[in-house]
């Protein structure tokens, strides 16, 4: 018996249209057929590649909507500290179709937040929406399959902005350092994307060797490497250490 899925089993409805979960594979096959097949035996091969890429592929809604895209979330539209210039909008660059588009706005305006893709979802953590002295500890998650943001009830113990965010084990989000009420922080908090909870176990309490904001973090073989960042000195100085 054949176990091949029908097209209806490979698709789902999003915003009153159908999205094909296997669209990326279909687009790749179209392009390969156009480039390498014999037009006398393969009708698709007679379609020029530029027609496939310019007129067909943009209309295929492929199956990795977060991992194949660049998201720009929130921020502010002016250097002036004016909450009316703070943004909740989200713009997306689709590298497959080479186009920018907008998705629904976040539930909160956010400046200085950190974001991370986990599977097919996008998590946005922290930031501030009124004033830097009032940072946020909450999390929002974007689900591209229903095109909707969801606010998570659990919040960080130390609200912050300007922090680093790292993913470990494709499950745990580490919020590292940052700025909280005009003070740099060294605390590291861990969010479990399976349970949607911040871990509160005292045995898991983690801190950096010194307070730090704006560092860059990379995960490698289960270890987190933090490079650079603001250490809060006056005049402004940046760390040149790797933790």
Automatic annotation (TrEMBL):
Domain of life, per lineage: Eukaryota
Organism of this sequence: Perkinsus olseni (Perkinsus atlanticus)
Underlying gene: KLHL13_6
Ranges that cross the membrane: none
Stated name of the protein: Kelch-like
Pfam families: Kelch_KLHDC2_KLHL20_DRC7
């Amino acid at each position: 018996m054949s176990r091949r899925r029908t097209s209806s089993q490979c698709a789902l409805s999003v915003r009153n249209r159908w999205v094909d979960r296997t669209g990326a594979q279909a687009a790749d096959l179209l392009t390969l057929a156009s480039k390498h097949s014999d037009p006398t035996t393969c009708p698709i091969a007679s379609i020029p590649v530029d027609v496939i890429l310019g007129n067909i592929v943009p209309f295929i809604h492929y199956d990795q909507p977060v991992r194949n895209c660049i998201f720009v979330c929130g921020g502010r539209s002016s250097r002036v500290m004016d909450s009316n210039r703070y943004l909740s909008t989200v713009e997306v660059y689709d590298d497959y179709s080479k186009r920018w588009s907008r998705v629904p706005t976040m539930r909160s305006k956010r400046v200085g937040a950190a974001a991370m893709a986990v599977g097919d979802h996008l998590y946005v953590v922290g930031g501030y929406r009124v004033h830097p002295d009032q940072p946020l500890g909450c999390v929002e998650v974007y689900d591209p399959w229903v095109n909707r943001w969801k606010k998570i009830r659990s919040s960080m113990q130390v609200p912050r902005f300007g922090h680093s965010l790292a993913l470990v084990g494709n499950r745990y989000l580490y919020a590292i350092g940052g700025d909280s009420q005009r003070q740099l922080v060294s605390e590291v908090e861990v969010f479990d994307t399976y349970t949607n909870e911040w871990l509160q176990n005292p045995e898991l309490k983690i801190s950096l060797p010194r307070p730090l904001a704006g560092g860059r973090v990379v995960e490698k073989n289960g270890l987190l490497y933090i490079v650079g960042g603001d250490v809060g000195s006056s005049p402004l100085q940046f760390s040149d250490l790797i933790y």
